[in-house]
TrEMBL record:
Keywords: Membrane, Transmembrane, Transmembrane helix. Gene3D superfamilies: Single-stranded right-handed beta-helix, Pectin lyase-like (2.160.20.10). The keyword Acetylation does not apply. It comes from Planomonospora corallina. The lineage of its organism: Bacteria, Bacillati, Actinomycetota, Actinomycetes, Streptosporangiales. This is Right-handed parallel beta-helix repeat-containing protein. Residues 246-256 have a biased composition (Basic residues). InterPro entries: Beta_helix, PbH1, Pectin_lyas_fold, Pectin_lyase_fold/virulence.
Amino acid sequence: MTQKARTSPTGGPQAEAGEEPDAAPAPIEEAVMADEETLKAGTVPAADAEAQAMLVDVEDQRIVQVRAALTALMQTGGTAAAQRKRPQVFVSAHGRTLVLPARSTSAPYTVRDLAAVEDGRYLRKLKDGSYLLGVHVFVADGATLQLRGPLTLRMGSLPGSFSSVIAFGGDIEIRGTAERPVRITSWDVRTRRPDRTTTDGRAYIRAVGGNFEMEHAHVSHLGFWSGRTGGIALTGTERPASEYRHRTKEQRHRDKRERLAAAGTGRGGSDFGDVETSPIGPGTATHVLADELVSGSIRHSTVTGDAYGLFVSGSSQTRIIDNEITGSLVHGVFMHRFTKNAVIEETRVTGSGGDGFVLSRATEKVRITKCVAERNGHNGFTLNGRALAHGPSASGESLAVFGDSSVNDSVARDNGRYGIEVLGGTRLAVHTSEVVGGDMGVVVREGASEVQISGNKLVDQRRQAIALRDGATGAHVAGNTITGTVTGIYVRDSTGRIVGNKITTLSKPDAHGITVIGAADGTEITRNTVAGSGTSAISVARADGEVDKRDNDEERWRDTSSFWVKARRYVKPMNVIWAGVILLVVVSALRSRAAVERRRSRAGDPYGPQRVLEERPVTELRPAGVNGTVNDAVNGTVHDTVPGADRAARADGARRRQPSLTGHAVPAPTSGGRA
């Protein structure tokens, strides 16, 4: 018979120890979680978003207050400090916290130690062998919390009241085996199920500095809103770790006498209290000291339904190997600021609301190998090497970009946006990986430089398999195999070497093997093999600058472009200018010739108005009575009585004589001056 529930230490009802669960109730609302993009899209109401953000701030304040109170107690020294080196509960306006201070020995704290505090008030063992945690746990600097399998830990998580396990400078070890794993989940005692609602906060685990080790664990439904409260979080700290535990009693007293003697002398100290300061060295305002970076490893574990599957920032030498991360509300594996020299191997992320794997800004030398990102809502892998600032900023960030990270031998399959996206940075690489489906395969943009994309296999992208866009420079795209996409390699306002790729596109009218658009001066396209049919095998008609295109195999490409498309390939700015100049010369010449013809037609024959010279028969005047010719002196009329034959002979002789200007023959003078 089910016993009546009573109020838990976290403020809500909980099951009695040994209580058998009732029949499973109807599922409560699905978990609600979002990052900035989904919040802007209206997925999370503004009131819920504000409530979650406020809870994150409350958690930050609680952690700082607990650490400050513990440090103050330990610095008192003597018997009081010795008595504090045991589990104890701190109470504040932000809730109860079970504090585990550093012990005098190296022995770790265990579940048994937690269950012994106030006779199991905060950690109670249930009938099924599991433990219910009803308080925040704080592992102090120098202490170690060890959770060994087989173990099932249910972390109380109710509206506005939840538990957490936080190490601040201390260590957390969660170790099971394949047969005897450690199981950790949030737990709502009202529904007797894991807490799936994040709008009112949810249980989480976090290591701030120190070391975190987890092996053969099954973790589910932890975290809310931010990365540091996102589920399992490994974060560095800008607050120096206490060196108090590394010094003897005599050394501590000597240090105190020196500080007091120096007070007010200008050599250090302060008149307002016993405060010691020391320089932190060069760096930006967000620089994390090397000795405050968190380290650790997560191996052979599964994480299901967390806000962030795994969140890491301010870390060095972190190892994430052979894990399964499913159904994260935001991102699967998120490597945040100042994560360096990390290794992520053989880890699978599926069904995340955001990206599968994220290397955020200020991450360097992170190697992702043999990992799988499948069916995530956004990208499979995101590598972001952009600078933290682009000019003077309030926090004084450096303008340097980040890089030297890579994705190797991995798979991105059927993700909602891109398979792999590279944003800015330098010397980022994608090698021998496979990208299946998605809108695009590998996208390089935001001014990324010297990106290496080689030996990859890309299949069935909806638009472009590989895209170099928006100022990418010095990219090296070589030895990739691309099939089943509309555009194999797309270059826009970017430069690089595209060498030795094998591309087989879909048979579509708008298909391209390789296309280059915009500023691409210095780009090299050589020894590529392009097959398929569409607009063009390799198109550089719309590129500005000199593109070295040679030794490419296009024999298996069938050009289906129209006449106008082919014509546009040659319509380049310089070609248009020269064609215009030539056309202008030809038109000017034709117009000049036409103008000459028109003037000629209007002027006519210049000799046309002049009178044509007229030739008349020659008449010889002779005295009257000679050869039968009668001269009529009165009217000047000459009557020719000469026969026809003689007249012809005379006319022939007259034509030999020079005509006068009036056309009349000049008569020969006769003797006596008379005609």
